[in-house]
Amino acid sequence: MSEQDMTRRNFLLVGAAAAAAVASFPTFSLADVRQASLSDCMDMAPEDMAKRSKMVTDSYAYLLAVVDSIQDPTLRKSVRGVIEDPAPTILSDLSSPSNRKEAYGALSSMGFVKKTSLEEFLPAGSPKKSPQPFLSAPGSGYQSHHAYPGGVVTHTAANVRLSLAFFDDYQKTYGFDLDRDVVIASQALHDLHKPWVFQWDASGESRTEHPLAGTGQHHPLSVAESIRRGLPAEVCVAQACAHNHPGFAKDEEGPVNWIKAACVLTGKDPVKAGLLAEDGETLPLPRRMEGFVCHLGDHDWVLTVPAAKWMIPVLGETAMESYGLSEADLKGRKFNALRNYVFSQAPIMALYHEYSTSGKAALKKTVFEIVKPV
Description:
Elements (H helix, E strand, L loop, with lengths): L7 H15 L15 H6 L2 H7 L1 H14 L5 H12 L12 H13 L41 H24 L5 H9 L5 H4 L13 E2 L2 E2 L1 H11 L4 H8 L8 H18 L23 H8 L3 H22 L10 H13 L2 H11 L1 H11 L4
Antiparallel strand pairs: 1-2
């Protein structure tokens, strides 16, 4: 390719091709499952389960490969650094009881912590190290989407791929380039604090999330982390749009409030930081399209939430029928270990598809390939 042909679009396409060459997007195959016994499952920590899953480890490799295709070297290093250790560095600014109380009071006066106490509005943790690797965190609350070790990785990888599909389609259909770096960074970091918020406990369940500024606390906390780590304003704004878009005034209230909450936690002025417009009531004007793409890309949950809610009780029935569990066991560590391992090895949506198209007997056969029946 000559220098004349190396247009910005060609440059971006080369970057996308390089990412694809490093790691193709993972696809599930039952042949890749590593079978275990129920006792094996009970002996495994969440990180062990995630590392045994080809689906999870391939998703992680894909995610890092795409992040490595970010053209801006400073941004690329920052995003990769967060994924490699999503430590809640915002706690550095909230380490003293007085600072934490002051931040809680400000959030309370804004109506952002109506149902959450001072003790609950931040998870326990250290600003120096994440309580768990990004690799092992679930993708949401324990009864919701991707609720298994490695769930946040598979969810984020899928969302990044969806976002890049929008990026490519807008190029081809409408003939303009969005900022690919911002698209990747905002989506890769949109759930960066799920390892902090959804810590695993001894029962095999993840921590219950509390609301913050009208959404799950992981979202404003993730935006706050990006702000504190000095990521560009356009990345932070696009990231804030993951849970809602700024196309209509009522919808835009969401990202505006999440940015405001994040700025309380980081001691920033959202207007001076370029995160909100001069009146402090909208996103910076004119609104950038990358935020819409981040929002559209974060829609894996629309199907995965109901699929999880439908699959968990069916797996519970299978646990009692084929693994010797009692109804009481379904609320404890034994069943949690079983479901965590099954779902980390095989996508919940793939299992639900098999169940909905081929029936329970076919589903049980697949589950037996993952965990040996008793």
